[in-house]
Design goal:
Layout (H helix, E strand, L loop, with lengths): L5 E2 L2 E4 L3 H12 L4 E5 L6 H5 L5 E2 L8 E2 H12 L5 E4 L3 E6 L5 E5 L4 E4 L1 E4 L5 E4 L29 E5 L3 H10 L5 E6 L8 H12 L4 E4 L1 E6 L7 E6 L3 E6 L2 E4 L3 E4 L15 E2 L12 E3 L4 E2 L7 H19 L14 H6 L4
Parallel strand pairs: 1-9, 2-3, 2-10, 3-6, 10-21, 12-13, 12-18, 13-14, 20-22
Antiparallel strand pairs: 4-5, 7-8, 8-9, 11-19, 15-16, 16-17
Length: about 350
Protein backbone atom coordinates (compact mmCIF):
# COMPACT_ATOMS: atom_id res chain seq x y z
CA UNK A 1 0.00 0.00 0.00
CA UNK A 2 1.40 3.39 -0.99
CA UNK A 3 1.00 6.27 1.44
CA UNK A 4 -0.19 8.77 -1.17
CA UNK A 5 -2.45 6.42 -3.11
CA UNK A 6 -6.24 6.48 -3.16
CA UNK A 7 -7.40 3.07 -1.92
CA UNK A 8 -10.60 1.69 -3.40
CA UNK A 9 -12.22 -1.58 -4.42
CA UNK A 10 -12.38 -1.04 -8.17
CA UNK A 11 -10.64 1.38 -10.53
CA UNK A 12 -12.63 2.08 -13.67
CA UNK A 13 -10.85 3.57 -16.68
CA UNK A 14 -13.55 5.38 -18.62
CA UNK A 15 -16.46 7.48 -17.37
CA UNK A 16 -18.84 6.85 -20.25
CA UNK A 17 -22.28 5.25 -19.84
CA UNK A 18 -20.91 1.73 -19.42
CA UNK A 19 -18.35 2.85 -16.83
CA UNK A 20 -21.06 4.73 -14.97
CA UNK A 21 -23.42 1.76 -14.94
CA UNK A 22 -20.57 -0.39 -13.65
CA UNK A 23 -20.47 1.94 -10.64
CA UNK A 24 -24.13 1.08 -10.03
CA UNK A 25 -23.69 -2.69 -10.30
CA UNK A 26 -20.54 -2.66 -8.18
CA UNK A 27 -22.21 -0.36 -5.68
CA UNK A 28 -25.08 -2.77 -5.17
CA UNK A 29 -22.46 -5.30 -4.09
CA UNK A 30 -20.92 -2.82 -1.67
CA UNK A 31 -17.83 -2.04 -3.77
CA UNK A 32 -16.38 1.46 -3.93
CA UNK A 33 -15.11 2.92 -7.18
CA UNK A 34 -12.77 5.54 -8.58
CA UNK A 35 -13.05 6.49 -12.26
CA UNK A 36 -10.36 7.94 -14.50
CA UNK A 37 -11.14 9.65 -17.78
CA UNK A 38 -9.01 11.74 -20.09
CA UNK A 39 -12.01 13.92 -20.91
CA UNK A 40 -12.82 16.92 -18.76
CA UNK A 41 -16.43 15.86 -18.36
CA UNK A 42 -18.39 12.76 -17.44
CA UNK A 43 -20.23 10.80 -20.12
CA UNK A 44 -17.59 9.66 -22.61
CA UNK A 45 -18.62 9.79 -26.26
CA UNK A 46 -22.23 10.52 -25.30
CA UNK A 47 -21.34 13.79 -23.62
CA UNK A 48 -18.37 14.76 -25.74
CA UNK A 49 -19.35 13.86 -29.29
CA UNK A 50 -23.13 13.77 -29.40
CA UNK A 51 -24.68 15.34 -26.29
CA UNK A 52 -27.72 16.45 -28.32
CA UNK A 53 -27.99 13.36 -30.51
CA UNK A 54 -31.03 11.18 -29.77
CA UNK A 55 -30.57 7.59 -28.63
CA UNK A 56 -33.45 5.19 -29.24
CA UNK A 57 -32.25 1.81 -27.97
CA UNK A 58 -31.93 2.19 -24.21
CA UNK A 59 -34.40 -0.25 -22.59
CA UNK A 60 -37.36 1.51 -21.06
CA UNK A 61 -36.37 4.93 -22.44
CA UNK A 62 -37.95 5.48 -25.88
CA UNK A 63 -35.64 8.39 -26.64
CA UNK A 64 -33.03 10.45 -24.83
CA UNK A 65 -29.97 12.44 -25.76
CA UNK A 66 -26.44 11.44 -24.86
CA UNK A 67 -26.34 14.13 -22.19
CA UNK A 68 -29.70 13.11 -20.77
CA UNK A 69 -28.53 9.50 -20.49
CA UNK A 70 -25.39 10.66 -18.72
CA UNK A 71 -27.39 12.81 -16.33
CA UNK A 72 -29.76 9.94 -15.51
CA UNK A 73 -26.87 7.56 -14.89
CA UNK A 74 -25.24 10.10 -12.58
CA UNK A 75 -28.51 10.36 -10.67
CA UNK A 76 -28.71 6.56 -10.46
CA UNK A 77 -25.17 6.11 -9.09
CA UNK A 78 -25.24 9.07 -6.70
CA UNK A 79 -25.89 6.82 -3.65
CA UNK A 80 -22.56 5.10 -4.22
CA UNK A 81 -20.46 8.28 -4.17
CA UNK A 82 -18.03 7.41 -6.98
CA UNK A 83 -14.84 9.46 -7.15
CA UNK A 84 -13.90 10.95 -10.54
CA UNK A 85 -10.46 11.88 -11.83
CA UNK A 86 -11.19 13.81 -15.01
CA UNK A 87 -8.78 15.21 -17.58
CA UNK A 88 -6.37 12.48 -16.55
CA UNK A 89 -4.99 9.66 -18.65
CA UNK A 90 -4.37 6.22 -17.14
CA UNK A 91 -0.68 6.05 -17.87
CA UNK A 92 1.09 3.40 -15.85
CA UNK A 93 -0.11 0.13 -14.33
CA UNK A 94 1.83 -2.10 -11.97
CA UNK A 95 0.89 -5.11 -9.89
CA UNK A 96 1.74 -4.87 -6.20
CA UNK A 97 3.02 -7.67 -3.98
CA UNK A 98 -0.44 -8.04 -2.44
CA UNK A 99 -1.93 -8.68 -5.87
CA UNK A 100 -3.62 -5.29 -6.10
CA UNK A 101 -3.25 -2.92 -9.04
CA UNK A 102 -1.50 0.43 -8.82
CA UNK A 103 -2.60 2.86 -11.50
CA UNK A 104 -0.85 6.18 -12.03
CA UNK A 105 -2.27 8.92 -14.21
CA UNK A 106 -0.43 11.54 -16.23
CA UNK A 107 -1.50 14.07 -13.59
CA UNK A 108 0.30 12.11 -10.88
CA UNK A 109 -2.81 10.66 -9.25
CA UNK A 110 -2.18 7.20 -7.81
CA UNK A 111 -4.97 4.68 -7.28
CA UNK A 112 -4.76 1.22 -5.79
CA UNK A 113 -7.41 -1.50 -5.94
CA UNK A 114 -7.72 -5.27 -6.30
CA UNK A 115 -9.75 -4.87 -9.49
CA UNK A 116 -9.23 -2.79 -12.62
CA UNK A 117 -12.04 -2.35 -15.13
CA UNK A 118 -11.33 -0.89 -18.56
CA UNK A 119 -14.44 0.77 -19.94
CA UNK A 120 -12.64 3.07 -22.31
CA UNK A 121 -14.90 2.75 -25.34
CA UNK A 122 -12.73 2.58 -28.45
CA UNK A 123 -9.76 3.79 -26.47
CA UNK A 124 -8.59 7.07 -25.03
CA UNK A 125 -9.65 10.31 -26.59
CA UNK A 126 -6.66 12.30 -27.69
CA UNK A 127 -6.79 15.83 -29.09
CA UNK A 128 -6.52 16.54 -32.79
CA UNK A 129 -3.59 18.90 -33.15
CA UNK A 130 -3.22 21.75 -35.62
CA UNK A 131 -0.44 21.33 -38.15
CA UNK A 132 2.02 23.91 -36.90
CA UNK A 133 5.75 23.46 -37.12
CA UNK A 134 7.41 22.91 -33.76
CA UNK A 135 4.09 22.69 -31.93
CA UNK A 136 5.25 19.85 -29.69
CA UNK A 137 8.04 21.99 -28.28
CA UNK A 138 5.52 24.43 -26.79
CA UNK A 139 3.17 21.83 -25.29
CA UNK A 140 2.82 21.83 -21.54
CA UNK A 141 4.19 25.36 -21.18
CA UNK A 142 2.39 27.51 -23.74
CA UNK A 143 0.14 25.14 -25.68
CA UNK A 144 -2.61 23.11 -24.01
CA UNK A 145 -5.42 20.91 -25.31
CA UNK A 146 -7.44 20.94 -22.09
CA UNK A 147 -7.94 23.29 -19.19
CA UNK A 148 -7.18 21.46 -15.99
CA UNK A 149 -6.59 24.49 -13.79
CA UNK A 150 -8.13 27.79 -14.82
CA UNK A 151 -5.72 29.65 -12.55
CA UNK A 152 -2.89 28.74 -14.92
CA UNK A 153 -4.39 31.16 -17.42
CA UNK A 154 -4.95 34.04 -15.04
CA UNK A 155 -3.44 37.31 -16.30
CA UNK A 156 -2.25 35.58 -19.48
CA UNK A 157 -2.89 36.53 -23.07
CA UNK A 158 -4.80 33.52 -24.33
CA UNK A 159 -5.65 32.55 -27.89
CA UNK A 160 -8.37 29.90 -28.19
CA UNK A 161 -8.62 28.11 -31.53
CA UNK A 162 -11.66 26.26 -32.85
CA UNK A 163 -15.37 26.65 -33.52
CA UNK A 164 -16.99 23.94 -31.40
CA UNK A 165 -18.39 23.82 -27.88
CA UNK A 166 -15.05 23.35 -26.12
CA UNK A 167 -13.45 26.33 -27.87
CA UNK A 168 -16.31 28.71 -27.17
CA UNK A 169 -16.96 27.42 -23.66
CA UNK A 170 -13.35 28.08 -22.64
CA UNK A 171 -13.23 31.42 -24.44
CA UNK A 172 -16.22 32.47 -22.34
CA UNK A 173 -14.99 30.88 -19.10
CA UNK A 174 -11.45 32.28 -19.26
CA UNK A 175 -12.41 35.79 -20.36
CA UNK A 176 -12.91 37.11 -16.79
CA UNK A 177 -9.48 35.97 -15.58
CA UNK A 178 -7.30 36.28 -18.69
CA UNK A 179 -5.39 39.51 -19.26
CA UNK A 180 -6.40 39.29 -22.89
CA UNK A 181 -8.37 36.67 -24.76
CA UNK A 182 -9.07 36.00 -28.40
CA UNK A 183 -10.74 33.32 -30.50
CA UNK A 184 -9.52 32.25 -33.92
CA UNK A 185 -11.63 30.19 -36.31
CA UNK A 186 -11.30 29.66 -40.05
CA UNK A 187 -14.84 30.86 -40.79
CA UNK A 188 -17.50 33.07 -39.25
CA UNK A 189 -19.74 30.12 -38.44
CA UNK A 190 -19.59 27.95 -35.35
CA UNK A 191 -20.65 24.42 -34.40
CA UNK A 192 -21.08 25.36 -30.73
CA UNK A 193 -24.43 25.63 -28.99
CA UNK A 194 -26.34 28.77 -30.06
CA UNK A 195 -26.30 30.27 -26.56
CA UNK A 196 -22.49 29.89 -26.48
CA UNK A 197 -22.13 31.58 -29.85
CA UNK A 198 -24.35 34.39 -28.62
CA UNK A 199 -22.29 34.79 -25.44
CA UNK A 200 -19.03 34.79 -27.41
CA UNK A 201 -20.28 37.46 -29.80
CA UNK A 202 -21.44 39.58 -26.85
CA UNK A 203 -17.96 39.46 -25.32
CA UNK A 204 -16.45 40.52 -28.64
CA UNK A 205 -19.04 43.27 -29.14
CA UNK A 206 -18.27 44.65 -25.67
CA UNK A 207 -14.58 44.76 -26.50
CA UNK A 208 -13.70 42.21 -23.83
CA UNK A 209 -12.35 39.70 -26.33
CA UNK A 210 -11.25 39.44 -29.95
CA UNK A 211 -12.47 37.24 -32.78
CA UNK A 212 -10.19 36.47 -35.71
CA UNK A 213 -11.56 34.75 -38.82
CA UNK A 214 -8.30 33.30 -39.97
CA UNK A 215 -6.07 30.27 -40.25
CA UNK A 216 -3.18 29.59 -37.91
CA UNK A 217 0.06 29.51 -39.88
CA UNK A 218 2.86 29.36 -37.34
CA UNK A 219 4.13 30.03 -33.85
CA UNK A 220 6.33 32.86 -32.61
CA UNK A 221 8.72 32.77 -29.68
CA UNK A 222 11.53 30.57 -28.43
CA UNK A 223 10.03 27.25 -27.38
CA UNK A 224 8.55 26.51 -24.98
CA UNK A 225 7.68 30.17 -24.46
CA UNK A 226 5.11 31.43 -26.94
CA UNK A 227 4.99 35.11 -27.83
CA UNK A 228 2.51 35.03 -30.69
CA UNK A 229 0.70 33.05 -33.36
CA UNK A 230 0.93 33.87 -37.04
CA UNK A 231 -2.55 34.16 -38.51
CA UNK A 232 -3.80 34.69 -42.03
CA UNK A 233 -7.30 35.72 -43.03
CA UNK A 234 -8.89 36.46 -46.40
CA UNK A 235 -9.70 40.01 -45.37
CA UNK A 236 -6.89 40.71 -42.94
CA UNK A 237 -4.01 39.03 -44.71
CA UNK A 238 -1.10 37.75 -42.63
CA UNK A 239 -0.41 39.12 -39.19
CA UNK A 240 0.89 38.06 -35.79
CA UNK A 241 -1.47 37.84 -32.84
CA UNK A 242 0.57 38.37 -29.70
CA UNK A 243 -0.21 35.86 -26.95
CA UNK A 244 1.54 33.62 -24.47
CA UNK A 245 -0.98 30.78 -24.30
CA UNK A 246 -2.60 28.80 -27.11
CA UNK A 247 -5.58 26.51 -26.57
CA UNK A 248 -6.44 24.57 -29.75
CA UNK A 249 -9.78 22.74 -29.56
CA UNK A 250 -10.10 20.84 -32.83
CA UNK A 251 -11.95 17.83 -31.53
CA UNK A 252 -10.79 14.45 -30.38
CA UNK A 253 -9.76 11.21 -31.92
CA UNK A 254 -9.62 7.84 -30.27
CA UNK A 255 -6.46 5.86 -29.72
CA UNK A 256 -5.86 2.92 -27.45
CA UNK A 257 -3.09 4.87 -25.71
CA UNK A 258 -1.21 3.56 -22.69
CA UNK A 259 -3.77 0.77 -22.16
CA UNK A 260 -1.89 -1.04 -24.92
CA UNK A 261 1.12 -1.16 -22.58
CA UNK A 262 -0.75 -2.77 -19.67
CA UNK A 263 0.28 -6.29 -20.66
CA UNK A 264 -3.19 -7.33 -21.76
CA UNK A 265 -3.72 -9.45 -24.85
CA UNK A 266 -5.07 -7.34 -27.70
CA UNK A 267 -6.87 -8.29 -30.87
CA UNK A 268 -6.98 -5.46 -33.39
CA UNK A 269 -6.73 -2.96 -30.54
CA UNK A 270 -9.59 -4.60 -28.66
CA UNK A 271 -9.38 -6.67 -25.48
CA UNK A 272 -10.56 -10.29 -25.82
CA UNK A 273 -12.66 -11.35 -22.83
CA UNK A 274 -14.63 -14.35 -21.70
CA UNK A 275 -18.37 -13.88 -21.76
CA UNK A 276 -18.97 -15.24 -18.28
CA UNK A 277 -17.00 -12.59 -16.40
CA UNK A 278 -15.71 -10.20 -19.08
CA UNK A 279 -12.25 -10.64 -17.67
CA UNK A 280 -9.15 -10.21 -19.82
CA UNK A 281 -6.30 -12.70 -19.98
CA UNK A 282 -4.88 -10.96 -16.90
CA UNK A 283 -6.71 -11.95 -13.70
CA UNK A 284 -8.21 -8.92 -12.01
CA UNK A 285 -8.38 -6.81 -15.17
CA UNK A 286 -11.80 -6.66 -16.80
CA UNK A 287 -12.93 -4.98 -20.02
CA UNK A 288 -16.50 -3.90 -20.74
CA UNK A 289 -18.14 -1.85 -23.47
CA UNK A 290 -16.72 -1.11 -26.91
CA UNK A 291 -13.15 -1.79 -25.80
CA UNK A 292 -13.70 -5.56 -25.59
CA UNK A 293 -14.28 -8.26 -28.18
CA UNK A 294 -15.83 -11.74 -28.12
CA UNK A 295 -17.85 -13.86 -30.55
CA UNK A 296 -21.13 -12.17 -31.32
CA UNK A 297 -20.14 -8.83 -29.79
CA UNK A 298 -22.49 -5.94 -30.54
CA UNK A 299 -21.19 -2.45 -29.89
CA UNK A 300 -24.28 -1.19 -28.14
CA UNK A 301 -24.62 0.66 -24.86
CA UNK A 302 -27.11 -1.93 -23.66
CA UNK A 303 -24.54 -4.70 -24.32
CA UNK A 304 -22.10 -2.81 -22.13
CA UNK A 305 -24.68 -2.61 -19.35
CA UNK A 306 -25.09 -6.41 -19.43
CA UNK A 307 -21.31 -6.84 -19.37
CA UNK A 308 -21.04 -4.49 -16.37
CA UNK A 309 -23.51 -6.61 -14.40
CA UNK A 310 -21.65 -9.89 -14.96
CA UNK A 311 -18.27 -8.25 -14.45
CA UNK A 312 -19.40 -6.94 -11.07
CA UNK A 313 -20.26 -10.41 -9.80
CA UNK A 314 -16.76 -11.64 -10.68
CA UNK A 315 -15.08 -8.49 -9.36
CA UNK A 316 -16.75 -8.99 -5.97
CA UNK A 317 -15.08 -12.36 -5.55
CA UNK A 318 -11.67 -10.75 -6.09
CA UNK A 319 -12.31 -7.66 -3.98
CA UNK A 320 -14.01 -9.55 -1.14
CA UNK A 321 -12.30 -12.95 -1.01
CA UNK A 322 -13.90 -15.19 1.56
CA UNK A 323 -17.19 -13.27 1.63
CA UNK A 324 -20.35 -14.88 0.31
CA UNK A 325 -21.97 -13.22 -2.66
CA UNK A 326 -25.75 -13.21 -2.39
CA UNK A 327 -27.66 -12.51 -5.54
CA UNK A 328 -30.53 -10.13 -4.76
CA UNK A 329 -33.18 -8.21 -6.62
CA UNK A 330 -33.60 -4.48 -6.11
CA UNK A 331 -37.38 -4.98 -6.24
CA UNK A 332 -37.46 -7.14 -3.13
CA UNK A 333 -34.19 -6.71 -1.20
CA UNK A 334 -34.45 -4.25 1.66
CA UNK A 335 -30.65 -4.34 1.87
CA UNK A 336 -30.24 -3.13 -1.71
CA UNK A 337 -33.04 -0.61 -1.32
CA UNK A 338 -31.27 0.79 1.74
CA UNK A 339 -28.09 1.22 -0.31
CA UNK A 340 -30.11 3.04 -2.93
CA UNK A 341 -31.71 5.27 -0.35
CA UNK A 342 -35.21 3.97 -1.13
CA UNK A 343 -37.80 4.99 1.46
Amino acid sequence: MSDNAHQTDVIIVGAGPVGLFAVFELGLLGLKTHLVDILDRIGGQCAELYPEKPIYDIPGIPVCTGQELTDKLMEQIAPFDPQFHLSEMAEELTRLDNGHWRLKTDAGTVLEAPVLVIAAGGGSFVPKKPHLEGLDDYEGESVFYAVRQMERFRDKSVLVAGGGDSALDWFIALQPIARKIALVHHRDGFRAAPHSVEAMRAIVAEGKGELHIAQMKGLEGTAPHLTGVRLEGKETGAFVHECDMLLPFYGLTMKLGPVAEFGINLEQNLIPVDTAKFESNVPGIFAIGDINTYPGKLKLILSGFHEAALMSQAAFKIARPGERLRFQYTTSSSELQKKLGVR
